[in-house]
């Protein structure tokens, strides 16, 4: 799968957001990827790559928090498995929607989305 160019926020701007808001933004792209993949539209790949890029950026700024970094690394692994691998972890669209809707709810509650 060829990776399209993505437009990432600067590290400084991304760091200003709460972790919940960062995860909500990642989730927005994951949910868009799911939506377009369900429609068999190739646009899903761009949203998938954008989510991975944002996830990598989030990992870079959370290195001082081992538990959070572990979750982010596992999230990356399972997302790649789901979208590009053999889905060894048996993820589903519904599982991802539930996972990221939690963060979207927190971000909306805190009015940062």
Account of the 3D structure:
The chain has helices at 11-15, 19-38, 44-60, 66-84, 93-109. It has one domain (18-109). The radius of gyration is 14 Å and the shape is globular. It has 113 residues and is an all-alpha fold.
If you compute it from the alpha carbons, what radius of gyration comes out, rounded to the nearest whole angstrom? 14 Å
* The number of domains: 1
What spatial form do the alpha-carbon principal axes imply?
A: globular
Low-confidence stretches: none
Counting helices, strands and paired strands, the structural category is mainly alpha
Give me the number of helical elements. Answer: 5
Instruction: Tell me roughly what share of residues is in helical segments.
Output: 55-70%
Query: Averaged pLDDT, please?
Result: 92
What portion of residues belong to β-strands? under 5%
Largest sheet: none
User: Secondary-structure element sequence?
Assistant: HHHHH
What is the number of beta strands? Answer: 0
Termini distance?
30 Å
């Amino acid at each position: 799968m060829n990776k399209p160019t993505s437009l990432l926020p600067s590290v400084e701007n991304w760091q200003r957001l709460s972790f919940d808001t960062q995860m909500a933004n990642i989730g927005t792209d994951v949910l868009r990827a799911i939506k377009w993949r369900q429609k068999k539209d190739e646009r899903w790949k761009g949203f998938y790559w954008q989510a991975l890029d944002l996830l990598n950026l989030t990992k870079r700024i959370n290195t001082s928090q081992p538990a959070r970094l572990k979750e982010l690394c596992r999230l990356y692994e399972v997302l790649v498995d789901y979208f590009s691998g053999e889905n060894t972890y048996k993820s589903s669209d519904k599982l991802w929607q539930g996972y990221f809707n939690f963060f979207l709810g927190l971000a909306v509650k805190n009015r940062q989305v």
